[in-house]
Amino acid sequence: MRDIRGDLQDRANQVTEQISATQEQFDKVLEQLKLEHKAKLEELKSDLGAIRIVIKTEDRLGSVITPTKQSEPQAQQAQSQRPTSDSLMRRVSALR
User: Fold this and answer.
1) Partner of 75 at 20 to 30 A CA spacing, among 3, 18, 44, 53?
2) How does 10-47 read in b/e, with b if 16+ C-beta sit within 10 Å?
3) Cβ atoms 48, 85 nearer than 8 A
């Protein structure tokens, strides 16, 4: 019977090399995904900060525009005219 230990050892070495190469490729892809994730997260946080500033400005402008003594229908009308956060978000995304 022929001794195949050498062939098996060669095959094991080859598989080990393939595993190492695949692991290196995986690590590179993972690092790239982490960088992309970080960049996207920073972009979204920046957008969120800008939106919060716009909302605060809109709130201040809304309180300045709204008279302190109004009848109930006028107060409801003024409240409905103030932009909601949804419409504000649409305006901000339209600017992009």
Assistant:
1) 53
2) eeeeeeeeeeeeeeeeeeeeeeeeeeeeeeeeeeeeee
3) no
pLDDT tens string 26-60? 999 999 999 999 999 999 999 999 999 999 998 88
Residue 68 has pLDDT above 80, yes or no: no
pTM of the prediction?
0.53
Dig out the tokens for 82 from the structure. 């103030």
The span from the CA of 83 to the CA of 62, in Å, is 9
**C-alpha–C-alpha distance, residues 85 and 96, integer Å:** 17
